[in-house]
Design goal:
The structure holds two protein chains of two kinds. Chain A is mainly α. Chain A has twelve helices and no strands. Chain A has one domain. Chain A starts with a helix and ends with a helix. Chain B has two domains: 3-95 and 213-251, 3-Layer(aba) Sandwich (Rossmann fold); 100-204, Rossmann fold (3-Layer(aba) Sandwich), CATH 3.40.50. Chain B has nine helices and ten strands.
Chain lengths: 251, 261
């Protein structure tokens, strides 16, 4: 069964990474936690926001950002690391992508503890039935994660420079995407166009962050994610259809 | 009924060097048009691993592939397995294929023997239930006892081989593809392994075996092909093909052709 393969591979990778540590994947949560409290104390005064308002905003943004950036970063190695499997066995390449999404989601669930903790401390009211909308949002992220993994995985496997470009881009994206600050901070004409309106990462962060903060995602966010999903899948499908055969040769 | 039909397939391996990276492709693209294609053809080095190979196998065929290193034996097996899709020609398979190139796929040295049995089993296409049913058999045959509860990194090489062999041979083989014979550890195990191997091969519908071990091929196969430089140059009975192989070995040592296309 295919799902047994990706569930196993994804889980094995999580285990492998945190082998013989006491708190395992919670190490990533610890790092986010330190980051949120350090930046939160500076940021709330910098942006003139109360801790009750800013801390949950920052924590939710970071938790979602880490999910996205992990998915993208690890996509670079998808077919490079996967080579020793698919060069030995007949393999559906998409299984590797599912395994990657599965393990980044496992990581996300651990990191979510940070947000829940922060929300309970600063603004328990954010955790409402609306928060459950996070489930369909995560499904949307997983759906996009699969095409991202396959597309970036193929590009990085064929052109090894892409991996470096991706890591530079992500570093930059963390600051220009509204994660530490709200989109309202940048002028509506000009900057906001680039960092918000045409920044796909903004929509992907926002669709999960909104329900975490007890809000229904805006129509613009939902439409944005829908567009990203459709375009991403169409492009990846063409790419995959055309070059799938070459993947075994590129490794 | 199982069937393997390989029709006129060719496989080239591109050799990617430092210069063939994004920068080059980007500039080539920028240059545009027909020149890019011509330039690209000349720039790209390829190794031609299979050259118009055809082969048809039916139920109860046990074929040994014989040839020097680099003759294309492994590539042919991997093409039949569907790992490498040929650039020309086609491969048609009826039935389930079990490629046994890596007997413990997904091996994790920090996992216990039992956990690795599950991982390998799943990757080799078994269901959880099949695996659970096979565990007592694997325990008995591998004779690893309590070691199965320890991380695999504590195993000696012989123990690893025993584990891998025991797991691999529990799979329902169908069309079985074996590369270089699954090495078998110590002498005492060797004898039992040979028996289990024979029984395992007996369960398969078709066997394709690439090996340098002439005895193994003689024992397991009922026909053979001789490959050289990516082509099948002889096919026939095992004895006949082996004789030709020994002869050719005296004549020359033919490395794989490498060239630029």
């Amino acid at each position: 069964m295919q799902w047994e393969i990706w569930a196993r591979l994804g889980w094995l990778e999580v285990k492998r990474r945190y082998r013989r540590t006491v708190i395992g994947p919670f190490w990533s949560a610890v790092s986010i936690c330190i980051f949120v409290f350090a930046l939160g104390s500076v940021g709330s005064s910098l942006f003139h926001r109360t801790a009750a308002d800013y801390m949950p905003f920052l924590a939710s943004g970071m938790v979602v950002w880490v999910l996205l950036s992990n998915t993208i970063t690890e996509s670079c190695d998808l077919f490079i690391d996967g080579a020793n499997l698919f060069r030995q066995l007949r393999f559906n390449y998409s299984v590797l992508a599912y395994a990657l999404i599965w393990r980044t989601m496992i990581g996300f669930l651990h990191n979510l503890v940070v947000y829940v903790g922060v929300a309970l401390i600063y603004a328990p009211a954010f955790l409402s039935p609306v928060t459950l909308l996070v489930l369909p949002s995560l499904f949307a992220i997983a759906l996009n994660g699969v095409w991202i993994a396959i597309a970036i995985g193929m590009l990085c496997q064929r052109f090894r420079d892409v991996q470096q470009l991706v890591s530079i881009t992500l570093q930059l994206a963390m600051f220009v995407t509204p994660i530490f600050w709200s989109p309202g901070f940048v002028p509506e004409h000009g900057t906001r166009f680039f960092v918000v309106l045409v920044n796909p990462l903004y929509y992907l962060v926002e669709i999960v962050r909104a329900p975490l903060l007890g809000q229904v995602p805006s129509l613009a966010t939902v439409l944005g994610v829908l567009l990203i999903t459709v375009v991403g899948w169409l492009v990846t499908y063409q790419l995959f259809r055309r070059y799938r055969k070459r993947i075994a040769y590129w490794s | 009924m199982a069937r393997v039909e390989v029709k006129d397939i060719s496989i080239d391996f591109p050799v990617y060097g430092v210069q063939r990276s994004l920068r080059k492709a980007f500039f080539e693209r920028a240059a545009g048009g027909i020149i890019r294609r011509a330039g690209r053809r000349q720039a790209q080095t390829v190794v031609n691993a299979l050259d118009r190979v055809s082969l048809t196998l039916e139920d109860d065929d046990r074929v040994g592939i014989i040839g020097h290193n680099g003759a294309g034996k492994t590539t042919l097996l991997k093409a039949i397995a569907g790992i490498y899709e040929p650039i020309a020609g086609e491969v048609r398979i009826e039935g389930k294929v079990t490629p046994l190139f890596d007997v413990l796929p997904g091996l994790d040295f920090d996992d216990t023997g039992y956990e690795n049995i599950v991982t390998a089993g799943i990757l080799l296409g078994m269901t959880r239930r099949d695996i659970r049913a096979a565990v007592p058999q694997i325990e008995a045959f591998s004779e690893l006892g309590d070691y199965l509860s320890l991380p695999v990194r504590t195993y000696s090489e012989g123990m690893m081989t025993r584990l891998g062999f025991s797991v691999a041979t529990t799979v329902e083989p169908g069309i079985l593809l074996i590369d270089e014979g699954i090495a078998t550890g110590d002498a005492r195990f060797g004898e039992r392994a040979a028996r289990r191997m024979a029984e395992f091969i007996g369960r398969s519908s078709i066997l394709v075996l690439a090996s340098h071990d002439e005895d193994f091929i003689q024992r397991a196969c009922n026909k053979a092909i001789l490959m050289r430089a990516g082509r099948i140059i002889e096919r026939g009975s095992v004895d006949e093909v082996l004789r030709l192989y020994r002869q050719s070995r005296q004549d020359d040592v033919g490395p794989a052709r490498a060239g630029t296309t």
